[in-house]
Known about the structure:
Layout: E1 3-7, H1 12-23, E2 27-32, H2 41-49, E3 54-57, H3 63-77, E4 80-85, H4 92-97, H5 99-119, E5 124-130, H6 153-171, E6 176-182, E7 184-186, H7 205-213, E8 220-223, E9 235-236, E10 238-240, H8 241-258, E11 262-266, E12 272-273, H9 274-285, E13 291-294, E14 303-304, H10 309-315, H11 323-336
Parallel strand pairs: 1-2, 1-4, 2-3, 4-5, 5-6, 6-11, 7-10, 8-13, 9-14
Antiparallel strand pairs: 9-12
The structure holds nicotinamide-adenine-dinucleotide and uridine-5'-diphosphate-4-deoxy-4-fluoro-alpha-D-galactose.
Amino acid sequence: MPCILLTGATGYIGSHTWLALQDAGFDVIGVDSLVNSSIRVLDRLETIGGRQPVFVQGDVRDQAVMDRCFELGQARFGGIKAVVHFAALKAVGESVERPLDYFENNLGGLLAVCQAMKRHGVFNLVFSSSATVYGKPERLPITEDAPLRVTNPYGQTKLLGEEMLRELERCDARWHVAYLRYFNPVGAHHSGLIGEDPRGVPNNLMPYVAQVAIGKRQHLNVFGNDYNTPDGTGVRDYIHVCDLAEGHVAALRYLADKGQSLTVNLGTGQGYSVVELAQAYGKAADREIPLVFAPRRPGDVDACYADPRHAFETMGWKASRGLEQMCIDSWRWQSTNPNGFEG
Ligand code: NAD
Ligand code: UFG
């Protein structure tokens, strides 16, 4: 089976995609600097997948690290066929404080990955983009042809990354790219052995709610209850991380079979409010999630959810797991690993 290189492989989405690829019969090599993940992910991947992970620790911006990945791919699996590029910094607030670090890591990283791919004659790339490229949407649900605009340096690295890759494709027909615009990935693998393990105070809703449920935080601050939504709280398109991971398998098959690029939303098409998510989580964890209404968070939009039809029409992929499953699986991970991968 073809071998796929995953950058950012021990991160939240990378680790779940690793398993989805193995389940689909692919060989996998992972590379990660561990700037935002734990080496212990590898033991968990081995326990779940029954195979020792082939992993290179290092920064994708380091040419020697990338060459080592491709050489390992050649020696172990007869060559890497495609790359899924997850490696990036992803905290919106931090990107406003440290924009140059975000440009350097996310754009410098993408450039270095493409250069390494070219050196080794590999031209199929899956790029982790984000619904953040749509900014404040004019129309809901959001289709892929909606206007693109961003409001922070993190978002800018995704938009510029997409633009750089589109220019690359225009100049050199060998390149084929799957631009995957993720909505809000949540949940965890059903084994409860891997999941999201944020460092410090979680920025995102479900990991924060999970820490309230386990008793690490007293209540959820609900950022704004005067939005133009049915209950006044922000509405998002939460997608189970295992559905998202399977979207990468579909994208890799599409690139291999069709030999052309594609841009797709990876979402469910269903929006849920902050209060709805907190209630669903409370039910899954069988406890109350205390809510405290707080001011709006700067930069947040009322509602953001995908039109996921294009992903189904092109790649035959659609999400199958609902909000209840997302909460149950997140809670299994959180309750059995209260301190994440650190034991
Ligand atoms: P994550 O932080 O858990 O994983 C990213 C991984 O990349 C980490 O393990 C980190 O150590 C690694 N990394 C970062 N810079 C690196 C570098 N220069 N060299 C090598 N490794 C490096 O994040 P995630 O949630 O798994 O996100 C994966 C991708 O999906 C990112 O590109 C992110 O921007 C994108 N994305 C995430 C979300 C989300 O809400 N989680 C939404 C949209 C898009
Ligand atoms: N929220 C709270 N309290 C919290 C955290 C979040 O009320 O403690 C609310 C937010 O105001 C928002 C909703 O929960 O209404 C979801 O917030 P998240 O931070 O979980 O997700 P966002 O949609 O704001 O952002 C996420 C990623 C971005 C990415 C974007 C793409 O964090 O990186 O999705 O849609 F760009």
